[in-house]
Write a structure and sequence with these properties.
The protein is mainly alpha-helical. The protein contains 13 helices and two strands, in the order E-E-H-H-H-H-H-H-H-H-H-H-H-H-H. The protein folds into three domains: 98 residues, Serine Threonine Protein Phosphatase 5, Tetratricopeptide repeat (Alpha Horseshoe); 84 residues, Tetratricopeptide repeat domain (Serine Threonine Protein Phosphatase 5, Tetratricopeptide repeat, Alpha Horseshoe), CATH 1.25.40.10; 72 residues. Strands 1-2 form a two-stranded antiparallel sheet. The chain is globular and about 70 Å long. InterPro entries: TPR-like_helical_dom_sf (IPR011990), TPR_rpt (IPR019734).
């Protein structure tokens, strides 16, 4: 059994994650930066429709090409992404970037945050090359401005590592993850759900290049943090347990793997995410571990369940086509 993949650049559920103390960036459970509200404050009752009305009014009055207009676009983009419309969010962020660029204001802390949000939604829409270029531009900007050694910088490097890994350059991805890890240690933010996501990504990447001892060390540290912070019972937690189980199965520790796969199975079953490609992968891994542990009857049942879900997924895909 191999560790199948690093965590994706964006969680499959486009929800806002938990903001850290800066309030400038958010991160979802699988280690991806989410676009957050920019510096312009809004009360809790502000709705997407009111934001859109404001943007339309500024556009009609030819006042959108201003910093205030760009921040309104960024706010609306964050709202669109939160509601799951990544394509609209990308369009709004692109327009905001254009305004910042035309005003000569992109080389700023606000510009760095905007670019990071744009990269996140580019990843969400599958534009991984675009996301990678945007994150690299953000890295250059943050480095030049001396604002990389921050929590936001750690978010950026984690996303850059995930984007780089998705393009096949795992060694470079590991470098970015290691740099992000160093910043989290310095800023005392490793023992957080975001730190756990970073360690999970780093461990998965280490496993994919064959460094299983380092992979297991990082993955188990991530697991400890998720248990302490109460964030294990999420899709990211199930994936983390699956990866640790895979590492143990690689070392022929089938009993240890079986315990972890079973816990991941329960999380996915309770959370309704077992009926998925990841759920099928988990069921097959669980069955193989059961074979290794001598539990052939249970293995046969889980192999059959995996096949049944796989067929249902294919049927659903065929009906859409």
């Amino acid at each position: 059994l191999k560790i199948k993949r690093a965590h994706p650049i964006l969680d499959e559920r486009p929800t806002m994650g938990a903001c850290e103390a800066t309030g400038a960036s958010c991160q979802c459970s699988d280690g991806c930066a989410q676009p957050c509200a920019p510096s312009i404050p809004f009360n809790g009752g502000t709705t997407s429709s009111r934001l859109r009305e404001t943007v339309n009014k500024l556009r009609a009055e030819n006042k959108l090409e201003t910093l205030v207009g760009a921040e309104m676009l960024e706010q609306l983009g964050a709202t669109a992404h939160q509601s799951g419309d990544s394509q609209e969010a990308e369009s709004l962020y692109q327009e905001a970037v254009s305004i910042y660029t035309n005003l000569g204001a992109l080389n700023s802390d606000e510009g760095a945050h905007l670019l990071a949000s744009l990269g996140a939604v580019q990843g969400a829409t599958g534009n991984m090359e675009g996301a990678l270029k945007t994150f690299q531009a953000t890295l250059k900007l943050r480095t030049e401005r001396g604002i990389l050694e921050t929590q936001d910088g750690a978010f950026l490097l984690a996303n850059l590592g995930a984007a780089t890994g998705s393009q096949g350059d795992l060694e470079k991805a590991i470098q970015y993850f290691d740099q992000a890890l160093s910043i989290r240690v310095k800023t005392d933010t490793l023992q957080t759900p975001e730190g756990a996501s970073l360690l999970a990504n780093l461990g998965a990447a280490k496993g994919k290049v064959g460094d299983m001892s380092a992979a297991l060390m990082h993955l188990e540290e991530a697991l400890d943090i998720r248990r302490v912070t109460g964030t294990l019972h999420q899709a990211g937690g199930a994936l983390l347990l699956t990866n640790i189980g895979a590492a143990k199965a690689e070392d022929n520790d089938f009993k240890g793997a079986l315990k972890l796969f079973t816990e991941a199975f329960k999380i996915r079953e309770m959370g309704g995410s077992l009926h998925s490609v990841e759920g099928v992968m988990l069921l097959r891994m669980l069955a193989e571990a059961e074979v290794g542990a001598g539990r052939r009857a249970a293995a046969a049942e889980h192999f059959e369940q995996a096949s049944r879900i796989w067929e249902q997924l294919n049927e659903a895909l065929s009906s859409k086509g």
